[in-house]
Design a protein that fits this description.
11-stranded antiparallel beta sheet; 4-stranded antiparallel beta sheet; 2 helices; 9% helix
């Protein structure tokens, strides 16, 4: 009996060490990089992103963004970030970090950008194809005053002469803008911007409850002044299953991924009677061979709390990276 206990403790220790270093479990909570109240709005798009395939030395990959909606009215950029979602970074079948150059182009103006944040994750155990995956983040110099330029382009170039390669699943453009109160599309909002890279996969001994990534939106809200709340989440590879079977994933908002989430009728009854429970949605991320990034935008007004709001993304034999979460709360004047 004693030897069995020692063995169990040893196995548990291995699991803890593996999880701490990165794994298929939800062990890398996204970071809140911006939280503020403004009169303005939030814009997120993948542009014409497509899966790049392998990018070799000196090869490039370009995404174009239609930004015409941002150039109408008197909008001023408060925050603009680019997210380069990359996978399969390797050299001679060994995982390495990609060496890339990222250039923005607006009209004839071009500029090479410097990365401001790097987020990575791996499956956490030695095995075949244990390559790095992650997100490189850049502050961009997007200018809303150039009303005659509807498109903004970003080009990624592999600049590693030593021969490493990587793939890009797509590029995301996030813009937080402010505007004048008299503008028709100006709203009083409070927003939270979270980013990172948490690889989750309910396989190899990882149960769905472990393959769950949580995102926290700290702060207090006066619910009487809330008009609407929207949650935007981004999951590269989410909803894409190469063999054609149905993808399995769940999105939670202010709801624990416990037994009650498996009984939706009971949960809805408790909510109607006692105001209990958050929202749960199944198979929300959809992707394919061309667009391999799952994006979901959802009205979560009915599930908003006065404090300690959170979201959770759960994998159930789908496989994905959780990289972005944006909560936007529109308020009464």
């Amino acid at each position: 009996m004693r030897s069995h206990s020692i063995f169990s403790a040893f196995v548990l220790a291995l699991i803890i060490v593996s999880t701490a270093g990165g794994s298929y479990a939800g062990d890398k909570t996204l970071n809140t990089i911006s939280h503020d109240e403004i009169c303005g709005g939030v814009f997120f798009t993948l542009g014409d992103s497509e899966y790049s395939g392998r990018i070799n030395y000196n090869e490039t990959y370009t995404v174009n963004f239609d930004t015409s909606v941002l150039r109408s009215g008197n909008k001023e950029v408060k925050l603009a970030r680019l997210y380069v979602y990359w996978v399969w970074s390797q050299k001679e079948n060994v995982g390495v970090y990609p060496t890339m150059e990222v250039e923005e182009k607006e009209g004839e103006a071009k500029e090479v950008l410097s990365s401001v944040a790097t987020y990575t994750d791996t499956k956490g155990f030695v095995g075949e194809y244990d390559y790095f995956s992650g997100v490189y983040v850049y502050n961009c110099n997007f200018d809303t005053t150039k009303t005659n330029q509807d498109f903004y382009s970003v080009t990624v170039k592999n600049v590693d002469a030593n021969g490493s390669t990587f793939c890009v699943q797509g590029i995301g453009l996030l813009v937080i803008y402010e505007c004048q109160e008299q503008d028709e599309d100006c709203q009083h909002i409070e927003y939270w911007i979270s980013e990172g890279c948490d690889m989750i996969y309910a396989e190899y001994g990882i149960a769905p409850e472990m393959a769950t990534s949580k995102i926290f939106f700290d702060g207090e809200l006066n619910l009487k002044k809330v008009k609407r709340a929207d949650l935007i989440t981004v999951a590269p590879s989410g909803g894409y299953v190469s063999r054609g079977e149905k993808a399995h994933n769940r999105l939670y908002f202010n709801e624990e991924s416990g037994w009650l989430s498996k009984l939706p009728f009971l949960k809805q009854l408790l909510r109607l009677l006692f105001g209990y429970g958050g929202g749960v949605w199944s198979d929300v991320y959809i992707a394919n061979d061309i667009v391999q990034i799952g994006v979901d935008q959802r009205d979560v007004t009915d599930y908003l709390k006065a404090s300690n709001n959170f979201a959770a993304i759960q994998d159930n034999h789908d496989y994905m990276m959780v990289t972005n979460a944006v909560l936007v709360v529109e308020k009464q004047e």
